[in-house]
Amino acid sequence: MTALEIRNLHVSVADQSILKGIDLTVKQGEIHAIMGPNGSGKSTLAYALAGHPFYEPTAGQVIFNGEDLLEMDADERSRAGLFLAFQYPVAVPGVTVANFLRQAINARRRAEDPDDKGISIPAFRRLLKTKMDMLGIDHKFAGRYLNEGFSGGEKKRAEILQMAVLEPSIAIMDETDSGLDIDALRVVAEGAVRLRNESDMGVIVITHYQRLLNYIVPDYVHILMNGRFVEHGGPDLALKLEELGYDWLRELYGTPEEA
Amino acid sequence: MLDRRLAAWDVYASLPMPTTSDEPWRRTNLRRFKPDNIGPSLNGTADAAVASVPDYLAAQLTEDKTGGLLVQVDGITQSYELSEELQSQGIIFCDMHVAVRDHAELVQKWFMTEGVPATDGKFAALHGAFWRGGTFLYVPKGVKAAAPMHSALWSANGKTFTHTLVVLEEGAEATFIDEYGSAESGSDALHVGAIELLVRDNASLMYASLQDFGTNMWQFNHERGRVGRDARLDWVTSAMGTRLLKAFQTVELDGQGSWARMSGLFFADGRQHFDLDTQQNHNAPDTVSDLLYKGALRDKSRSVWQGMIKALPGSQRIDGFQANRNLLLDKDARADSIPGLEIEADDVACTHASTVGKIDEEEVFYLMSRGIPRETAVQMVVEGFFDPLMQRIPFAGVRAHIAERIIEKVG
Q1: Does domain A3-89+150-253 have CATH number 3.30.2130.30?
Q2: Which of B55, B239, B352, B411 has the fewest beta carbons closer than 10 A?
Q3: A95, A106, A145, A159: best mutation site toward chain B, by most B Cβ within 10 Å?
Q4: Quick check: is B316 in a domain?
């Protein structure tokens, strides 16, 4: 059973301390929601776990699959089974969705066996079609340049497609609901739920609002403020936040400016 | 022809060697260029190691057969074929020397008259005096060439001077690829080429010139396309090799309603220096030109792109576009990008864009976050940068070879 164990993680961005001691264990099959107001450090946690060089861990440990995640480069983390669905997916002009996914699959195969010839084109096409059909994505999508000129909904769907093809053991969804209307949100969320039901993937859902959690129902909810978890609970906690907003938490734990 | 060579030599002798005080040469210094130290061409007689043409150069363009294939070493033909179908269409596709002998009236009319006259510059004149080898392609009126044609021009060593003359008569259509290459060698070599593309009314030419010389080569080229009424010129040029490359690439939109697209792709590394001087001359109304040159630079390499769109006073309703995009892969690489417009008409749409930038680390991180190693991610970003131009190169085999060279150069 794969698990992601975050122990007392501190992260700085440009020498400014953002995360100030995060502890969280996520096992395969579990769904954790991390909620919090803007500026609480949610996306910093996501990027730090994915290995973005801009986000510097200054203390603590992250153990993934028994290995030290923080020692790995971003590509190694992905191959080890960690996936980040980006809040703002990056456009890579001139690289098609299909070419990109084939390279991502081949990178996994070559890490196992340096002499691997890569997935055959017909096998790759079959795989991609199956996944696109499962998520209700038009096959033309495969030939488009990655995220270039994509609508907000298309970008998020492309993230879910990548998740479906790469089959991670733990996926982090960073504000996957942001910028989506309710229909696009439903399509994306249902896709993610289907993947998780089929694969027993563990999920960390990072979100500002409750609405995504209507589809992806969390087992655990954690509230992040000013770089620390301040409350832990079940799905009820998310509903309470929806009802009361973050003000009661600010009163209890202080605003970032006061901290 | 001898008279023309002598006349060209007189022009050469009358012109000073360009220096950096000449505007087109301001960013390209010839101080290290010592033509007298470069030996004569070996006439294709060098030992097999340098004189043998590598397989990729003469490869068939399509799964079927290329319609015409001409392979030359130092301007001397090594092998030649032209399909019966193209012959029966009346198409002439041959060695430039054969053309002088067998098609004198055509050559006299067009050789260095309308395209690249010897008076174009010092190196055009040198070419006019010493040209040898190259290709003559003539497509008669109304004929649509049934298959693409391909020349592979290998320079073994020394000085080479190939000439390309393409004439498409009214309503004709053809696709032609010129590939240039040479072996890497310790001693300097020189190539002074001329390319003339004459596209008559309603004709349509797809022309690709793909250069991958060794880095001991100094290359000076004059290239010009003339496009007649409602005619089309789709021109792709790629540069990978040479120590120093200076090329003048010009389209003359002579006929009303003519269209030209210029697509340039280059990748410099080491101490390579590429200087590309382009002109889009709108000499008639309702003409369209679209230029996109993209370059990647590594190590201490340098590129210059200097582009000009000109419109004569009567050239109304024209649409001219030029863009130059450069990707710097190392801090010591440098690209100069100098767009220009000289518009004397008033009803025109002319725009230009130029950028010089580094590789986007966010793109690299995004690819890495899906398990792709950094090296591959960088290659993908660079390949992606070139992809829109690669799509304009008409043959998969040629595209694949250029893609391989790009990956080699990214390292």
Answers
A1: no
A2: B55
A3: A95
A4: no
pLDDT tens for each residue of A43-100: 999 999 999 999 999 999 999 999 999 999 999 999 999 999 999 999 999 999 999 9
Domain boundary among B255, B274, B298: B255
DSSP codes, B116-161? --GGG-HHHHHHHHH---EEEEEE-TT-B-SS-EEEEEEE-SSEE-
Q: What was the pLDDT predicted at B241?
A: 96
Q: Which residues of chain B have pLDDT under 50?
A: none
**Residue A31 CB: number of other CB atoms within 10 A?**
23
Q: What residues in A contact B372, CB-CB < 8 Å?
A: 75, 103-104, 107
Would you call A74 an interface residue with chain B, using a CB distance cutoff of 8 Å? yes
Q: What does the alpha-carbon distance between residue B30 and residue B80 come to, in Å, rounded to a whole number?
A: 37
Q: Is A99 on the interface with B (CB under 8 A)?
A: yes
Look at residues B227, B255, B283 and tell me which one is the last residue of a structural domain.
B255
Are B368 and A51 inside 8 Å of each other by CB? yes
Residue B284 maps to a domain? no
How does DSSP classify residue A96?
B
* Closest to A20 measured CA to CA, from A43, A46, A41, A39: A41
- Could you tell me if residue B349 is inside a domain? no
Answer whether residue B398 is part of any domain: yes
Tokens of B326: 């450069």
| A164 touching B (Cβ < 8 Å) | no
Q: How many structural domains compose chain B?
A: 2
The number of C-alpha atoms within 13 Å of B318 and in the hemisphere containing its C-beta is 35
Interface test with B, best of A92, A99, A101 (most B CBs within 10 A): A92
Count other Cβ atoms within 10 Å, centred on residue B368. 26
Residue A73 distance to chain B (closest CA, Å): 8
Q: How many CB atoms lie within 10 A of CB A243?
A: 8
Structural domain for B366, as ranges:
361-411
Contact A93 B370 (CB under 8 A): no
Tens of pLDDT along B345-403?
Answer: 888 999 999 999 999 999 999 999 999 999 999 999 999 999 999 999 888 888 888 99
Domain layout of chain A by residue ranges = 3-89+150-253
Same domain (yes/no): B238, B368: no
pTM, 2 dp: 0.90
Q: Could you say which of A50, A51, A103 has the minimum Cβ distance to residue B372?
A: A103
**Interface contact A52, partner B, CB < 8 A:** yes
Residue A105: closest C-alpha in chain B? B371
Nearest to B384 among A94, A101, A111 (CB): A94
Contact B106, B167 (CB under 8 A): yes
| Separation of alpha carbons B214 and B242, rounded Å | 5
* B77 shares its domain with B222: yes
Query: DSSP secondary-structure letter at B362?
Result: H
- The encoded tokens of residue B121 equal 């510059």
B176 lies in the same domain as B30: yes
Tokens of B193: 């080429």
| Token code pair at residue B130 | 């010493």
Q: Return d(Cα B259, Cα B288) in angstroms, integer.
A: 5
Closest by CA position to A62, among listed A21, A13, A1: A21
Nearest to B385 among A73, A78, A94 (CB): A94
Any chain B CB within 8 A of the CB of A103? yes
CA distance B203 to B209: 19
**Which chain A residues are Cβ-neighbours of B388 within 8 angstroms?**
94
Q: Do A95 and B381 touch (CB under 8 A)?
A: yes
Give CA–CA dist B12/B123, Å, rounded: 7
